[in-house]
Design brief:
The protein is about 40% helix and about 25% strand. The protein is α+β, with helices and mostly antiparallel strands. The protein folds into five domains: about 130 residues, Response regulator (Rossmann fold); about 120 residues, 2-Layer Sandwich (Beta-Lactamase), CATH 3.30.450.20; about 100 residues, Beta-Lactamase, CATH 3.30.450; about 70 residues; about 150 residues, Heat Shock Protein 90 (2-Layer Sandwich). The longest helix is centred in the first third of the chain and has 36 residues. About 5% of the residues have low confidence.
Length: about 600
């Protein structure tokens, strides 16, 4: 077990070391760091399991950077005196919990280390078990795909191939893992393939490439491979997902390799790509399609030629391609729903469209080229993943509430007397449980709004008083950061009808963001007034500001700007939830900001609720 101590006095470090030595059968590696900046470098290189850091001189930004550098570590902050509000602030910034300085040489510290060892042991066993289950599920999903497919990790090493790939190559999974799959790629194509693949990995972008791959019988066939980056919910890159299609009409043996590089017509090549390609004249009449289009619509290519594109794909408006024809622009439509009107079963699919101009030798636009890629399976898989996460989070809620109530009962002494050490331990557990419960509630709220299942508890309340209450709730944090928070109310009495708890969440979230990004000696002001049938409030700060180019993105789900990633990384759900709540009340929320000067969020809420 790896321990890292940051700060602390010489005698305190000795106490920690002696305490670790006194624990039987504890195999540990201890490293010491004089200050938090040095500790940040060590936590990245040493990768400790347990971090003990002195509160003296600790900056909250540094604490968040320590947590970001080692998400799995247990980080305990040594404090001089017990304070629930300070402990909550440190936990919110990344700490696991706090421990009193006086307890470093006593039984509480030994108990803490033993609990940490057991926690890490159970966590490790759980991760191994969950990884095995996840791998089994992933293999099952991969084998249902209609194409040869593979999956890589974030380094590009391929960690999974489905059965169709293994059957095609005649090799086992162990023979393909890592970089061993390249053994079946033709030597003349390998350098080009790896160049395309490496570039896509580095830039985290999709790619398409042709190459020759050896089959189970030792012959080569021409493969069209498409790969796309896979991201976690927080936007972190976790690897590439690829699919391959055999686009050969001829089996290439060693005696027939050279014709692969002989020039071929463009449409001849497009006849074999797995995406649909359409050629349209200036009136959007279809002049040619490749077989992938015909297969999608269950007809022959000849059946589509001569028809108007917007009649075949009726969900595309007639003016969609006007920018392409009139200005020579390229356009894209993603996840567009299409009902296959030529299919007797009227199957609904989702397609990605791309369109660009066709030009003659004089560079005049003489038509439109359209590509279509079916993404129905991808969207269904995304929806299934969302449903799974929503169900998982919902199932976590009940036991967390039960644990919170049980801990509260124990702290009150309902189950028997509690001494000081037990009370400290129970308080630590309760704070951690409440932190996790808050995260679960936020996720549940996000899924409810996305699914249209959010229910508002409508009541009459005073918005001005609620704003003052929220400012008071965060007063201790603002005092600690030496930031002035104030409210200014002008016209009206602030009485509205709506969901008080939801509006409270919006105010607290906007104030929390302002506190995160406002430096020492800054000012945060909440102004409010009535205007006609609306109440308007604005949260203004003198913080770092938001670039104008990011204004349209700040309310997107999981989105985080460069400032947020640098100063206060989070889930990217806060402003998204704010917008969902305000829109549900029939209101609006907007942002105005200037880099280096500050940001203002403006919220307009009708005084009377919308009819439901």
């Amino acid at each position: 077990m790896k321990f890292l101590v940051i700060g602390l006095k010489s005698d305190e470090r000795t106490m920690v070391k002696n305490a670790l030595k006194s624990i039987p059968d504890l195999d540990f590696d201890l490293q010491l760091s004089g200050h938090s900046v040095e500790g940040l470098f060590k936590i990245r290189s040493f990768q400790p399991d347990f971090v003990l850091i002195d509160e003296s001189g600790l900056d909250c930004t540094m604490l968040m950077q320590l947590r970001q550098a080692r998400a799995e570590a247990l980080i305990y902050v040594v404090v001089a005196e017990q304070s629930d509000s300070r402990a909550c602030e440190l936990i919110r910034k990344g700490a696991t919990d706090t421990i009193l300085r006086d307890h470093l040489s006593g039984q509480p510290f030994l108990s803490l280390i033993l609990r940490a060892c057991e926690r890490l042991r159970i966590s490790g066993q759980f991760r191994v078990h969950e990884l095995a289950k996840a791998n089994a599920r992933l293999c099952g999903v991969a084998n249902t795909l209609s194409t040869m497919s593979w999956l890589s990790d974030e380094s590009g090493e391929r960690i999974l191939f489905n059965d169709k790939w293994l059957k095609f190559t005649g090799r086992t999974l162990e023979q393909e893992l890592g970089k061993k799959w390249t053994e079946a790629v033709h030597p003349q194509d390998l350098k080009r393939l790896l160049s395309v693949y490496t570039n896509a990995l580095r830039e985290r972008k999709s790619y398409h490439v042709e190459y020759r791959l050896r089959t189970a019988d030792g012959q080569f066939r021409l493969i069209w491979e498409s790969g796309s980056p896979q991201l976690r919910a927080d936007g972190a890159f976790i690897g590439m997902l690829g699919s391959c299609a055999d686009i050969s009409q001829t089996i290439f043996t060693k005696d027939h390799l050279s014709p692969v590089f002989e020039p071929v017509g463009v449409m001849t090549t497009l006849d074999h790509v797995p995406i649909g390609v359409w050629k349209l004249d200036p009136n959007l009449v279809i002049t040619k399609t490749n077989p992938a289009v015909a297969t999608l619509f269950s007809v022959t290519p000849e059946h589509l030629v001569g028809r108007t594109f917007t009649n075949v794909v009726s969900s595309i408006p007639d003016n969609t391609f006007s920018r392409v024809l009139q200005h020579g622009e390229r356009i894209k439509l993603e996840n567009h729903p299409v009902t296959l009107t030529l299919d007797e079963k009227r199957r609904k699919v989702f397609l990605d469209f791309a369109a660009w101009p066709l030009r003659d030798k004089a560079n005049k636009v003489v038509g439109v080229c359209v590509s279509t890629t079916e993404v129905t399976e991808r969207l269904l898989a995304d929806q299934q993943r969302e449903d799974f996460v929503a169900a998982l989070v919902h199932d976590l809620k009940t036991p967390l509430i039960g644990a919170d109530q049980a801990l509260e009962a124990m702290l009150r002494g309902n189950l028997g007397p509690v001494d000081a050490n037990q009370s400290e331990l129970l308080s630590m557990l309760k704070r951690s449980n409440q932190h996790l419960l808050t995260m679960v509630h936020n996720l549940i709220e996000a899924y409810r709004y996305d699914a249209g299942e959010a229910r508002m508890s409508v009541e009459e309340f005073n918005l001005f008083e609620l704003i003052d209450s929220c400012i008071q709730e965060l007063a201790q944090w603002s005092t600690h950061k030496e930031i002035t928070m104030r409210s200014v109310f002008s016209s009206g009495n602030g009485i509205i009808i709506g969901d008080r708890m939801s509006i409270r969440r919006v105010i607290l979230n906007l104030l929390d963001n302002a506190l995160k990004f406002t430096p020492k000696d800054g000012v945060i002001e909440v102004s409010a007034e009535e205007e006609g049938g609306d109440v308007i409030f604005r949260v203004s700060d003198t913080g770092v500001g938001i670039p104008q180019s990011e204004f349209t993105q700040v309310f997107l789900r999981y989105w985080q700007g460069d400032s947020a990633k640098q100063f206060a990384p989070g889930t990217g759900l806060g402003l998204y939830l704010c917008r969902q709540i305000i829109v549900a009340h029939g209101g609006t929320i907007s942002v105005c900001s200037k880099l280096g000067e500050g940001t203002t969020f403006s919220v307009t809420i009708p005084k009377q609720p919308l009819p439901h």
